[in-house]
TrEMBL record:
Organism: Roseateles violae
HAMAP family per record: Ribosomal_bS6 (MF_00360)
GO cellular component, one term: ribosome
Official protein name in the record: Small ribosomal subunit protein bS6
Key words, A-Z: Ribonucleoprotein, Ribosomal protein, RNA-binding, rRNA-binding
């Protein structure tokens, strides 16, 4: 089994279905004997360029350990899911379990916005 990092860009109108999609993909991974090491929901973010006339997307990051056959099955699911705008799979040398740099910036943004929302 190999370690992978998968980043998904989900259509912003499908943000409500993200938890169900995550459970489906986690089920595929664990059913085949794989392990989910880290799941990060980065939320809706601005994209660098338009994809299908959209400026924003819902970002997800998964760090998993699966067999290549299971990975191929998961990526086929991404291709046929209209909600997935783009996906990127990167082979990692070891399991990543600490928060990513992107997740740390998301947490900083949320911490900065929380006092502003309380004041309003």
């Amino acid at each position: 089994m190999r370690h992978y990092e998968i980043v998904l860009l989900i259509h912003p109108d499908q943000s409500e279905q993200v938890p169900a999609m995550l459970e489906r993909y986690k089920g595929l991974i664990t059913a085949s004997g794989g392990v989910v090491h880290r799941v990060e929901d980065w939320g809706r973010r601005q994209m660098a360029y338009l994809i299908q006339k959209l400026a924003k997307a819902h970002y997800l990051c998964l760090n998993i350990e699966v067999s290549p056959a299971t990975l191929a099955e998961i990526e086929t699911g991404f291709r046929f899911n209209d909600a997935v705008l783009r996906h990127l799979t990167v082979v990692k040398s070891k399991a990543e379990t600490t928060p990513s740099v992107m997740m740390k910036s998301v947490e900083r943004e949320e911490a900065r916005k929380a006092p502003q929302q309380e004041a309003a």
